[in-house]
């Protein structure tokens, strides 16, 4: 992807996944946008927080909003990964495309416009039968797709390891500062999951969300952005080829 600010400029989209999942997750994302460095969010269209999220996004033009395609979720239990739910058989490309386009239609109807970018819950779009479908959709829309390669993706800001064990050092303000200062030239994305976990929030990533809010709103993080010469942007400004 061409760097609109010159070859040496460092642009950063700080994207909050799971917008629309619940009222508590929404509240954390709103706070991390208003008080912190979040510039963008990925909207889930199947969950109870959709209406509130859309209402906020429509009156908050500075927050870019893309589509967080939701096909399934997995969690670790007793040391094993188990599926919490499946919206569609992700080995069936035709079924995946029908569901992806259904979710896109819901997004467009709710938001009154298309998404600024595409990604997916738990990166399921990287699965072999899903990737071609979502890549085609992104190209039709002319928007960025996470992991496509045109945007440098940084997933270092996360509070659990690959087995689901707590790794709270990963969501400290100090680690976020390190990630920001190490960004390469070009367009970059740091993914995050700010929020507040209500009692009924069915996900393995719970308490870490509030810790992310605190880090994203930490004054040291904002200072690191400014001192590093990093420019905060949304995908709306850089997503097209």
Quick check: average pLDDT? 93
Please state the structural category.
alpha/beta
Q: Please give the largest β-sheet.
A: 8 strands, parallel
Strand content: 15-25%
**Level of helix content?**
25-40%
Number of helices: 8
According to DSSP, the number of beta strands is 10
Runs in which pLDDT lies below 50 for 5 or more consecutive residues are none
CATH homologous superfamily classification: Glycoside hydrolase/deacetylase
- The CATH topology turns out to be TIM Barrel
Alpha carbon gyration radius? 17 Å
* Element pattern in H and E: EHEHEEEHEHEEHEHHEH
Distance between the termini: 6 Å
Q: What is the number of domains?
A: 1
Proper CATH architecture: Alpha-Beta Barrel
Molecular shape: globular
CATH secondary-structure class: Alpha Beta
Which descriptors would you attach to this protein?
alpha/beta, 8 helices, two-stranded antiparallel ribbon, 8-stranded parallel β-sheet, 241 residues, TIM Barrel, single chain, 10 strands, 21% strand
What does the model show?
It is a single chain. The protein contains eight helices and ten strands. The chain is globular and about 50 Å long. Helix content is 34%, strand content 21%. Strands 1, 2, 3, 6, 7, 8, 9 and 10 form an eight-stranded parallel beta sheet that branches. The chain has helices spanning 23-34, 50-58, 93-111, 131-141, 173-181, 207-216, 219-227, 235-238; strands at residues 10-19, 40-43, 64-69, 72-77, 80-86, 117-120, 144-145, 152-154, 186-192, 231-232. With 241 residues, the chain is an alpha/beta fold. The chain has one domain (10-238): TIM Barrel (Alpha-Beta Barrel).
